[in-house]
Amino acid sequence: MTPAATSRPTLGAALVLGSCISLSFGAAIAAQIFPVLGAWGVTALRLSVAAIVMLLVVRPAVRRWNRTQWKAAILFGVALGGMNGSFYAAIERIPLGPAVAIEFLGPLVLSALLTRRLADTGWLVLAVVGIVLLGVDGMVGAQDLDPVGVGFALIAAAFWAFYIRATAHAGAVIPGRGALAVGFVVASVLLLPFGVPAAVVVATDPMLIVLTLATALLGSLIPYTLEFSALRMVPQRVFGILLSLEPATATVAGWLLLGQIASPLRLLAIAFVMAASIGVSLVGVRPRRRTDSVSGPDDGPEETPPLSEPATP
User: Fold this and answer.
1) Could you tell me the residue ranges of all domains in the chain?
2) What digits encode the pLDDT tens for the residues 238-253?
3) Which of 87, 179, 197, 219 is the least buried, fewest Cβ under 10 Å from its Cβ?
């Protein structure tokens, strides 16, 4: 094996890790402006910035789309907006690490439902045990887990599962990355009632402009680019394993930027969810996530998804 061939998987792994770090720190920065713009306002602005950039870069040929393609892109946009909005609503109320861990239930449940492998059911049980431990920690720990925040995290998990299916369908009927660009536009339009008031506030404060752009960059554009490049270098199974590090990077980001200190029980619970995610990835190919890009016609057929990818949040 040549040095170049050896370096590609290493570089791919570094890109996925960079994506996890970028997503986590982007969410932590977003949480700092929630008191001013609200979680849904920040989500709307982040998606709007990403939509503008993606439209300029991708330039989707929407005039040639048929009804099936438009329907797929709209469903993808609904999933994208619901997943991002509910996740940000969750981290407005509960710490970042637990929110990401709870959200991972979405792809884990989807894997157990679709693959019918006994091993997947076992990994799901392990993840549920982790979530139960999070609940116990929320009741007896120093920092309670807001039930409303937990509810939004569960909604985000459901939307993540919906996102996986919508991504697979959109990638099958729409060539290139057109569905991703149009999906961002659809999500932005759906959140317009929150985006317009937030944009008015941001326009009057240069610091808010900087933080909003940083959120869009770290939470969308950078991780999408890194993950798209990584998927060309590492197998999807390895990609899924590496993506399972996100609850850990989210916990670190919450600690460094938001002062969210995790108890030993909370860390154990997050470790259980990560182990379940890694286990599912070891026994099957993982599709691409909430902040993953939509697969194009050259991506090849995908197996029944054990988990998912690009982004999030």
Assistant:
1) 3-310
2) 777 777 788 888 888 8
3) 197
